[in-house]
Every structure is written in C-alpha cells, then in structure tokens.
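REQUEST ID: PR-0412
SUBMITTED BY: lab tech R.K.
PRIORITY: routine
TASK: structure prediction, single protein chain
INPUT:
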Amino acid sequence: MIDRLREYGIHDEAVLSAIGGVERHSFVDQALASRAYEDVALPIGHEQTISRPTVVATMLAAVIAPMKSDVRKRAKVLEIGTGCGWQAAVMARLFGEVYSVERIRGLHENARKNLAPLRLANVRLAFGDGREGLPQVAPFDAIVIAAAGMELPEALMHQMAIGARLIAPVGGEEQALHLVERTSEDDWRVTVLEGARFVPLREGTA
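STATUS: complete
OUTPUT:
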C-alpha cells in the first residue's frame, strides 16, 4: 500500500510512516479484511465508509505541509467523522493530541473498541454533532473533515488557530477537497484541490 501511495504522489515520509504503522484490516469487517490494503473505500456500517488510503494520505499531507516535526508532535488536531477509527489512529502517530468527533452512536462505540487494543493515550473520542466541533478545547492546529458539506462549516473555521489548516470535501454530487488556511483573526485563504467522493456531512446525532 505504501508503494502505491508513493506512485500516487504522496512523498511526505511522516504521513507514509503513520499509515504504514496502522493495520487497516483491523478496522474493517473480517469479511473485507482481504481488501483492506487496496485503494478503495470500504463499508463500515450505518451507510458509512472507511476512506481510500490515497485520499487520507492526500488530506493529511496537505494539513501538515507547513509544520516542522517538533511543532507537529505538539499539535492539537480535530477529526470530524471518526468512522471506524482508522484515520484517528493514523493521526495519533503524526500529532501530539487528536480529538475525533462522530455523530453516529454505533460507529462511535465501534471506534472505541477498534482503538482500545492500540492504547493510544493521545486520542480522545467524542460523540456529537461534528459540524459544531469541540469549542471547549479549541483552537486546533489542524482540522480534518471526513464528510462533505455543501459549504465549509463556519463554526469549525472559527475553531482554527491562527496559521492552522483545515481540509474538507465540499459539494453534493460533485465534490472537491478544499484546503483552508487561517491567516489572521478575521481572514481565511481557501484553495480548491482535487475532486473527491465522501458521504454527506449531516447535522445532529444518530
């Protein structure tokens, strides 16, 4: 899988090492384990999926690009859409503190079970509406959103530290990754990256 990521154009060694250090098959149904290292999104229940490795690598490489290693290892980051917990586990190998929010109770509980054997002291899972983020522990040095809204969630943009990056898919039938950089208290710079395909970013909990 790592060779495939390199061929795709991912060259950030920290990201490659983090992905290579987490067993993806441990986060999917046993019946799908043989496909865990293919570059495909796989169902994880509740009409949700685990994202393709190339997409996860692209998003993480984009948000950490300006971070020096020592800064990254102290960074506090937020993931919206815990899903099965795989991306949170990858992020735990990259950042100092990882907060992850999931709106579907069944997925939240399953992610806890999946992550428990890894004993990741720097990962904190929360059940709630991801669109609201976690204002009580903001600001964050990076935010990764694993579901697509029709627009960038304003509440999450205000939970970014100055200089932080946020990456999220935006759109409906047609989606694209948007990279947001907070340049000052009142200014954000948005860059549209490649096309993407994610499940919808919904309000509330289920």
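NOTES: The chain has a mean pLDDT of 97.
REVIEWED BY: pending
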